[in-house]
Each structure stands twice: as structure tokens, then as C-alpha cells.
Amino acid sequence: MGWIKLARQLVDNLLFTRKPHCWLHVWMTILLRVNWRDGVFFDGTEEIAVPAGSWVTSVDKLATNTRTKRQTIRGLFGILEGNQVHNPQNHQAMDDDNRHKLGSLPGGGRN
User: Fold this and answer.
1) Which domains does the chain have, with CATH numbers?
2) What confidence tier does 87 reach under pLDDT thresholds 50, 70, 90?
């Protein structure tokens, strides 16, 4: 399955120093769950290619898996998008029913 690199500068990041500890937990969950290689997701009607560095999930699923409130997940996404920690241009727009979202981390998840 592999490994991820974390820079020591993370201890100076606002997720580490000034935000609720659960935000760091959610961010780490995202880092650990994104695909390390290309994959395929079946949404019930069609297969969707999921490139390395991406992951298909929903706000509700991420909240459940991390035992965090949905509002907290949305707040974290707002901070991540504002700081360009991930690339919002790679997100597929989805309905408000929180079905599935495809997002990418910079560098395609390969280091």
C-alpha cells in the first residue's frame, strides 16, 4: 500500500497549531485514503476513472468515518481550498445530496 511523506513544517501549519484537533485528524484521513494508483469507482450506473491522488467519498461518509460533524468537514474544506492545500479545480461538481465527490491532492499523490 505504500507510505506518505509529511514535512516537519506541518507543526507550523494552522491545521496543527490553531484549528480544532479534529481538522488535522480529517486531513490525515484524507491523505491516507486517497488512491496511490489509478482506480475505478462504480457509482451504480457507470464506471468513473479515479486517478492516483484522488478519492471518491462524500461529506457524510467522511464525517462518519472520522466521527466528526458535517459542518466541521465543510469548514475544513473551505480552509483547504483557501490555502490551496488541495486543487479545487479537480473536483467534480455534485448535487447537495452529498453523493460522491472526486478530488485530487497536488502532485497526484506520488512522491
Assistant:
1) 9-105 (1.10.10)
2) very low
